[in-house]
Specification:
- By secondary structure, this protein is α/β, with parallel strands linked by helices.
- The longest helix has 18 residues.
Length: about 270
């Protein structure tokens, strides 16, 4: 089902919480002033994201998906509008929000375990309390036997698993992911998608996920937000009704194909 353009679709039954949304994006606009002109990146964006929801964002390259994610993360100020998290105005990065980039961003001279433990040092948290949790998460993502390995000794997929473990160790309420698997091969990407979906289902974490891959967005998400070309707006929101978590078999469902086609239509109409 496709929501009316510019509005959010009703959250599916797989979303954990009803009531007030966890994240409210209200009238957000963003412009950049260059030496020559003012560039409008985001037109007015209004979205509600519920607790426990997996929401993906797709759109043309350079349309402002990452800009919107950075605003929600508190890493970038909006030119207009506001973002509410748990009913509170977002004014700076929050400790309960984790961010995962396309590149793993691991320090090459530190072991896997010490990379995952690094935020504990930065935040001044007791390492003796964090270390057992870090090791448990590393085991969960399949890196329990690589605690002492250096990033250079890991494959690209394993590096991304370490990056994911680093975020999850500190139990964020919200996880923001900017094309985290875009550089991986198809097989590794599929494995990471399944791992991420399993973790999302088990923890109830809220995930905002930017991707260029329409099939990936449909496979992972409760809802897919389609962004228009710059200045970007919400061209439509597509609900994905399949039970959660999913297996790759869902990709053979004719409804899955229909949903990817609907998203392609919205993208074509919004260019």
């Amino acid at each position: 089902m496709i929501a009316d353009k510019g509005t959010s679709a009703k959250a599916t039954k797989t979303v954990v919480e009803a009531g007030r949304p966890l994240i409210e994006i209200q009238g957000v606009r963003k412009s950049y002033v260059t030496q020559e002109k003012t560039v409008k990146a985001l037109a007015e964006v209004n979205l509600d994201i519920h607790a426990g929801e997996f929401m993906s964002f797709v759109g043309p390259s350079g349309c402002g998906k990452s800009t919107l994610l950075n605003i929600v993360a508190g890493l970038l100020d909006a030119s207009e509008g506001t973002v509410l998290v748990g009913g509170e105005h977002l004014t700076k990065p929050r400790r309960d929000m984790g961010f995962m980039f396309q590149a793993p961003v691991l320090l090459p001279w530190r072991s896997v375990e010490r990379n995952v433990m690094m935020p504990a040092e930065v935040f001044g948290l007791p390492q003796e309390e964090i270390r057992p949790k870090a090791r448990r998460i590393l085991t969960t993502v399949g890196l329990g036997d690589f605690l002492d390995a250096l990033p250079s000794e890991l494959s690209g997929g394993m590096q991304q698993r370490a990056s994911l473990a680093r975020v999850l160790t500190y139990e964020p309420r919200v996880l923001l992911m900017d094309e985290p698997f875009g550089a991986l091969d198809e097989f590794t990407r599929e494995a990471m998608n399944l791992e991420l979906m399993r973790i999302a289902a088990e923890t109830g974490i809220t995930i905002l996920f930017v991707t260029h891959n329409i099939s990936e967005a449909v496979f992972l998400s409760h809802r897919v937000v389609v962004m228009s070309a710059r200045p970007s707006r919400v061209a439509g929101v597509v609900e994905v009704p399949f039970e959660y978590p999913r297996t790759v078999d869902v990709m053979h469902d004719p409804q899955f194909t229909d949903l990817t086609f609907q998203i392609r239509q919205l993208l074509g109409e919004s260019v």
